[in-house]
User: Which sequence fits this backbone?
């Protein structure tokens, strides 16, 4: 029976790179996005490249609790994944004291609450099975405060705390938990920035780091992966 991976926000950037990396190894894939046409494109692309891999997708806005739960139920009808990647996120620049009203709630629900509710949907099954690997895609912004980070930075600090707590809770049950904290990665979030592409990290480098951490023996866990551009933060 093929192993499987669940990646939220898998139609672009780091999420898509992780999907490709695991699909190359024969993992079946489950993913979601707010954009239905992008999900269809992903499914077709994966069918062309990895015809032996099952790719199942669902359109969902994970800033909405009910849609998180609906997506979890959709996956559970098929399997309990071996790997869960909490990747969904948004970045709206702005300072905490000036950003528009509602930006904080939207960012926290998308970046943090989605991971909380989705993870809770699968932890009991992981504990019963005594296996599983949960990755939270955070950010350097969850380690270093910077101007104009606003609610995004707050959400990523909170994501790191959530993941650390989860690691302690699931440790006795054989479930590995890893925080991934990438610096500036060349994805759609940086579109329009007047910087050369080679100033950014590759999304595929983040995916390779996730794959390497997953492949350790059950006796070891990478608790945090911090990756920065070679020339430093942007």
Assistant:
């Amino acid at each position: 029976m093929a192993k499987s991976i669940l990646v939220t926000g898998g139609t672009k950037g780091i999420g898509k790179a992780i999907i490709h990396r695991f699909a190359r190894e024969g993992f079946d894939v489950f993913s979601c996005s707010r954009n239905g046409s992008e999900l269809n494109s992903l499914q077709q692309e994966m069918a062309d490249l990895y015809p032996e891999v099952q790719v199942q997708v669902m359109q969902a806005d994970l800033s909405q609790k009910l849609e998180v739960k609906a997506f979890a139920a959709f996956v559970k009808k098929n399997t309990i994944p071996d790997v869960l990647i909490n990747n969904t996120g948004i970045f709206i620049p702005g300072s905490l004291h000036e950003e528009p009203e509602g930006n904080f709630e939207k960012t926290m629900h998308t970046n943090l609450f989605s991971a909380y509710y989705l993870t809770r949907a699968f932890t009991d099954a992981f504990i019963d099975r005594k296996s599983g690997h949960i990755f939270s895609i955070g950010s350097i912004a969850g380690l270093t405060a910077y101007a104009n980070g606003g609610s995004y930075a707050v959400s990523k600090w909170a994501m790191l705390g959530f993941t650390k707590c989860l690691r302690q809770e699931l440790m006795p049950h054989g479930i590995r938990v890893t925080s991934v904290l990438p610096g500036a990665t060349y994805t759609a979030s940086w579109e329009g920035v007047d910087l050369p592409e080679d100033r950014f990290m590759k999304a595929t480098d983040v995916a390779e780091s996730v794959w390497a951490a997953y492949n350790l023996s059950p006796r070891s866990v990478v608790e945090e992966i911090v990756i920065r551009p070679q020339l430093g933060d942007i």
